[in-house]
Description:
Blueprint: H1 3-13, H2 15-30, H3 32-37, E1 55-60, H4 70-85, E2 89-94, H5 102-112, E3 117-120, H6 126-134, E4 140-144, E5 153-158, H7 160-174, E6 179-184, H8 189-205, E7 210-215, H9 222-234, E8 239-242, H10 248-256, E9 259-264, E10 275-281, H11 284-296, E11 306-309, E12 316-319, H12 327-342, E13 352-353, E14 359-361, H13 369-372
Parallel strand pairs: 1-2, 1-3, 3-4, 4-5, 5-11, 6-7, 6-8, 8-9, 9-10
Antiparallel strand pairs: 10-12, 13-14
Amino acid sequence: MTMKSKRQLLKFAGGSTLAVLAASVALVGCGKKEEAAVPAAAPASAAVVVKPEPLKIAFAYVGPVGDGGWTFAHDNARKAVEQEFGDKVVTSFVEKVPEAADAERVFRDMVGQGNKLIFGTTFGYMEPMLKAAADSKDVKFEHATGYKQADNLRTYDSRTYEGAYMAGVIAGKMTKSNTLGVVGSIPIPEVIRNINSFTLGAQSMNPKVKVKVVWVNEWFNPPKETEAAQSLINGGADVLMQNTDSSAVLQTAEKNGKYAFGWDSDMTAYGPKAHLGSAVINWAPYYIASVREALDGKWVAGAGKHAWWGVKEGAIDLVSIAEVVPAETKAAVEKVKAGLKDGSFSIWKGPLLAQDGKEWLKKDEVADDKVLSGINFYVKGVEGKVPGGGK
């Protein structure tokens, strides 16, 4: 091809081809120098993670944390909450808060300290908590053993009567005098229900038993509990149960060579020779569930928001049954426990008679929770009268 032909061909290709060729030459000439001229990407700024403030939780206790019973059980559950949630929560407690107007001041102080979830752990806190909750709508309140709710206050309880029944099964077998004794705290349905349940459990093993009750009208008063226990022993009772918070009843039984049960917590160590078993409450499952709901924004209160947990939910048990208890009696307790867990056994199934001999539940009739929550009378087999004017 002649030079003229080549020039004509280039001309025919047009300016665009010349531009491409020129660009190629330029790139070859620049080499790495051109690559270095491309600015490096700016480093991504580090994401700022804002750690949420821990949920502040407060507990009001009616007794001392070292009572070995009711308050001790609640405080163990508080510690379980700390273990479960770590630095997501901060807990605190005030012990020996009276069931009186001063309780309201304690709840308001807890609010002032920034607590957003507050647990009141005894029946007598009901009215003080309602007042504090009404003025602190951004705070969640939980009241143990009560029945009044509000938009930011709900109630919870444990089926302590299930533990009382299982203790009764053992008591009915172990008594030689056929007389059992109960040291009662305050004559409210919760306590009356436990006395009745203990009686029914004992009667399931020994229809001849009778149950005597001495009331101390306090939850925690070791001297009064001791005096009441001694009175029952003097009256012929050789197996004692209590619905009070200290270990005084068990210790009194130990000194007198009689039998007794621990209540709310495992009290074996307080009277190892007298101890037949402990009807315990494990509040941890409920407290952990409640705190998780609060952390997840799923906590709900209001009318009808009441939780009542028992053996089925892992909240109630009879533990540390003594070696002296016969194997067949232990088996009977385990059968009851299994039935309560799977729902095949009901403590409150007729025919059941009230103290005066009148039929309370007809054959195969089962009392529901509404009926149980209002029990204010003794079943047949309990001696004496239910005191009036209880809280």
